[in-house]
Amino acid sequence: MREEEEPNWFARWEEQLPSPEELMPLSQTLITPDLALAFDIPSVLSSPNPNPSLHHHHPAPTLHPPPPAPSSQPPPDFDSPDHLTTASSGGGASGAGAGEEPARTLKRPRLVWTPQLHKRFVDAVAHLGIKNAVPKTIMQLMSVDGLTRENVASHLQKYRLYLKRMQGLSSSGGGAGGGAGGPISAADAATDQLFASGSVPHHFLGRGPGPEPFMPFVPVAALQHHQQITAAMQQQHQQQQQYYQQRHMGHFGSPTGGSEGYDHGFLARTVPQPGMHRMVGPVAVGMVPPPPPSAPSAASYVEDLESGSRRGGGERRMLTLFPTGED
DNA sequence: GCATCAATAT
DNA sequence: CATATTGATG
Fold first, then answer.
1. Would you say the C-beta of A160 is within 7 Å of strand B?
2. CB A62, CB A82: distance < 8 Å
């Protein structure tokens, strides 16, 4: 009965609406510049593109490993906004030997959930609604290449636990009881790193074991229609511009001299493979897949740059985390 | 096959 | 501690 209300989400949505630049033929969006470079293919951007207004601003959530450097690579600052930050804990000697590209059974480096990545995750969950917030859907909505269902599933587990904690937390007077059964304590601190980053929409959270508060459904059709560029929209253009530091890379492109363009499982996701109908295009507004009542279009939301590293509390600085733009 | 939870392993 | 991986179950 109370399904229509809360223009809030809608307003937010409007602000997050993808700009025209976002809505572009998939012919181009599927390949990110980095990828093109990495593969040594003539940048699609340089191609005689009939569409002059197509600037790929919001790089598809291309979360990928550092591109190979054919020669020298002085500029350390150039990175895609969201790389899949992977940490290679090689520890030491790991293979490094040679010859190996089973590509099929290769273990990928540990995925590092950076605030940005988590942001996307949370946004996706928030926009999907608890109902559809399942690993697969989230993964698709995030459109992050390299992300696997297991990755999301694993993170989702943790995320849910976090939410549960917050709910169960009711008061307790701030004192947290001195050592009492508060399962929460350090957890908050740790979780604070990402979950409590301030972007956690606890909306649908609490409502206890009851039915969902009903997630509104967005008329996708409306999205593909008149998209007037307003000042507000332009504002959102200034998002993303973080500098990462990750010094390690998995075994993708040989960091030094490896100029091979193999199909690392990771990148595979950005290329439209014939036979694979992965509609996870960055912008699939023309067609929403599932029939379910709630089927927001992918990439219909653009994350706003969120700070992400603050939490002083102790002094734990993630060394691999980007320099917090602000302090 | 997928989602979730739990336990376990890195 | 954060993820990954696996097993059990619905």
1. yes
2. yes
Q: Is the CB of A137 under 7 A from strand B?
A: yes
The CA distance from A292 to A212, in Å, is 15
Q: Which two tokens stand for residue A293?
A: 């009542």
A251 touches strand C (CB under 7 A): no
The residues facing A256 across adjacent strands are: A69
What nucleotide is nearest A156 when CA is compared to C1'?
Answer: B4
pTM over 0.85: no
Return the DSSP state at A252.
S
How far is C-alpha A113 from the geometric centre of its chain's CA atoms? 9
Q: Give nucleotides in strand B with any atom < 7 A to a protein C-beta.
A: 2-6
How do residues A1-50 score in pLDDT, each as one tens digit? 544 444 454 444 444 544 444 444 434 444 444 444 444 444 444 444 44
CA dist., res. A23 & res. A243, Å (int): 26
Query: Can you read off the two tokens belonging to residue A236?
Result: 């959102």
